[in-house]
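thought: fold this chain, then report.
action: predict
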Amino acid sequence: MSEHAKNFRRISARIALQFMGFVFLLFLINGSIFLAVDFGNARRMAHGRLLRDAQMVLNQAEQVFQGGTLALPPPVEERMRILDADGQVLHAGWLFSDIPSFMTEGYTTIEVREEPYTVLTIPLSENDHVYGFAQVAGMERLPMRDLPLRWGLYLFVSILVSALTFVVGLFFARRSLKPAEQMMERLEQFTQDASHELKTPLAALSSSLDLAMKNGKYREGIESAKVDLKQVTVLVERLLELARLDKFVSADESIDLTRLVETSVERFRSLVREKHVVIEQTVAQNVTVNGDAILIQQILSNLLSNAIKFSKPAGGKIHVRLTPKEFSVEDNGMGIPAESLPLIFDRFYQAEPSRAMGGFGLGLALVKRIVELHGWTVSARSTLGSGTTFTVYFGTQTRKARS
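observation:
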């Protein structure tokens, strides 16, 4: 795994961790608010129930002081107690049998047989004179001792969801950063290739100038250096073209591909006459594509110039074909070795027979990149000594404009 890939994996993990931390914190805050609201609602409901029960007791409490009996529902009877002003028990249900008397008004929390209860104490008064107290008890629906258990359960769920969030976040972070990772890898490869390829012409340039200084043949040395410098200039221009295409957004317009192919072939006819090469063409009429005309022109020019360059010096023949589905250029030149064929679209790659012909091995890399920008595909087939055919497939994009 490359260093860039490792760095992007670390960045992806860091993003996923931050996202997981955010989700975990969000769950904790939400859980805290939920538990607080849940406890608050439960307490309000419990107090409301006690208040309703206490009202029933108050309506009959005076009968107890007069020696009468109470007629309350059994659930209320078991949880009530009536005291006089001195705290003496006048009437009590079984829940209060073991609870000492107390006269603290309002809500009080007590434990009965290790269970928490809330007791509501209401004074009984007449003419501002307190003559007794009525008490009603109810069990805590959400006892405080259960809070650690509930909080621990919520914490466990938060950790589980956060872990799942990390896995999902890592997947999407890596997926989102993949284009950036690929761009960095291409940039690193581009830098390495450019550095490697620039060394040779620059070394030749330096040698030419050194030789001119030693033997005094300045004109010959300068002319040789100018040739080397021209090579460097061409190389830099081709490298810049590739660099621009790595971030290029092609235009999307309807192009008359038939006319573009025919024009490109005509532009090369004078060159092929000098080399005694014949160009034949079989071009379907009225074929159009959507794309960038300037870039498509570069595909045609690169493939045609390659075919002319590697054709036989005399008796060479090039056949250009265009159909609604594909464009191809076929020559009968030296051909490409089978082991080199899968590598010819790589930057700076040159098959062994073509090295003597000059160039930098960037033309076909440009063709492939432009083809990819248009969503097309390109392939090559070749037989050593018999020729090569390059074919660009348009897929479903082409159409006939007119019948």
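thought: worth noting. The helical segments are 3-65, 74-77, 147-215, 218-246, 257-274, 293-309, 352-355, 363-373.
final: tokens above.
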